[in-house]
């Protein structure tokens, strides 16, 4: 005799799925306690944790310049910016935790090298002007990517992005202002600025991910309204934003093919070097090993703080129990 299937479970799951689909179609938010498809949860955990890791690893290229910033004012601004990035990491880890992954698991994935983070943070920052180019181009690309995420269908993610985007726009302006100041300096300073723009322009275009026809998960993320625009559309928006800003700065974007095709309504560009992008994502970028090694060392150095906090909680709970 074959056991009859439990039809009540099947119906419940179908009901849940159609309720979820209705919420998505109506631009409503999915909240942590709502039913959601397992693949939606998995996708969000992967995306939000990778995003959090990018913020945390992203503190390193600029943290590198805090002690050498050219004035007290520049130092204070840069320090505030790097602290903001730590905050972004924390909001994002908290948002990911609402989906059932722990902070320890995420940290472990990052330090054992199994988690991915944005390829952009594996480039070196050899000069002070890199702080300007990163703020202008890297934080600028982050804004273009992240503003649509404020409307992501998963509530905790979208809400975290609202505050993050406000802070990112401060970052972008401080970077632009560093470059503007340098461009008003000597010929040697202008050359340094141009060199930094040459090094950061292409990697910042790669931040939007592979071209649409090579981005297999994009369609599903757009159907779930996590993602609102395709990689190529976001890249186009970013180029449209930086071209007039480059003119104001007086720097040249390092792409001789770059021009606006008015008929197609799009920017034409040279081919992006996707081999470089994939090499870095695979862990073979110029700074991958250093970034992870620093993160691991920071985690180990912080063990006593975590132990002390756990011990405090234990003692506090024991004392409360005694009083009760
Ligand atoms: Fe950030
Ligand atoms: Fe930022």
TrEMBL record:
One of its GO terms (molecular function) is phenylacetyl-CoA 1,2-epoxidase activity. Its EC number is 1.14.13.149. The keyword Oxidoreductase applies. Keywords: Oxidoreductase. Signal peptide: none annotated. It comes from the Bacteria. GO terms for biological process: phenylacetate catabolic process. InterPro entries: Aromatic_CoA_ox/epox, Ferritin-like, Ferritin-like_SF, PaaA, PaaA_PaaC. One of its GO terms (cellular component) is cytosol. This is Ring-1,2-phenylacetyl-CoA epoxidase subunit PaaA. It comes from Microbacterium marinum. The lineage of its organism: Bacteria, Bacillati, Actinomycetota, Actinomycetes, Micrococcales.
């Amino acid at each position: 005799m074959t056991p009859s299937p439990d039809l009540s479970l099947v119906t419940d799951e179908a009901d849940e799925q159609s309720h979820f689909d209705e919420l998505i179609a109506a631009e409503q938010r999915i909240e942590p306690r709502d039913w959601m498809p397992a693949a939606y949860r998995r996708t969000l955990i992967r995306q939000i944790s990778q995003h959090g890791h990018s913020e945390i690893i992203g503190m390193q290229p600029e943290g590198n310049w805090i002690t050498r910033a050219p004035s007290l004012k520049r130092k204070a601004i840069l320090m505030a910016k790097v602290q903001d990035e730590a905050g972004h990491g924390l909001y994002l880890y908290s948002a990911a935790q609402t989906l059932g992954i722990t902070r320890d698991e995420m940290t472990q994935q990052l330090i054992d090298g199994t988690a991915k983070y944005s390829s952009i943070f594996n480039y070196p920052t050899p000069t002070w002007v890199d702080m300007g180019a990163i703020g202008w181009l890297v934080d600028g690309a982050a804004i273009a990517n992240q503003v649509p995420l404020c409307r992501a269908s998963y509530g905790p993610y979208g809400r975290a992005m609202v505050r993050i985007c406000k802070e990112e726009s401060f970052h972008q302006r401080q970077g632009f202002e560093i470059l503007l100041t340098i461009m008003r300096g000597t010929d040697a300073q202008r050359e340094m600025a141009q060199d930094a723009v040459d090094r950061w322009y292409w990697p910042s275009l790669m931040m939007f991910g592979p071209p649409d026809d090579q981005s297999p998960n994009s369609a599903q993320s757009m159907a779930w309204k996590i993602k609102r625009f395709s990689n190529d559309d976001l890249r186009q928006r970013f180029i449209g934003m930086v071209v007039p800003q480059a003119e104001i700065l007086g720097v040249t974007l390092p792409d001789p093919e770059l021009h606006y095709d008015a008929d197609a309504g799009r920017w034409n560009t040279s081919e992006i070097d996707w081999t470089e992008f994939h090499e870095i994502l695979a862990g073979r970028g110029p700074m991958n090993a250093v970034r992870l090694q620093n993160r691991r060392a920071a985690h180990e150095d912080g063990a006593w703080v975590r132990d002390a906090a756990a011990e405090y909680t234990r003692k506090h709970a024991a004392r409360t129990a005694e009083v009760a």
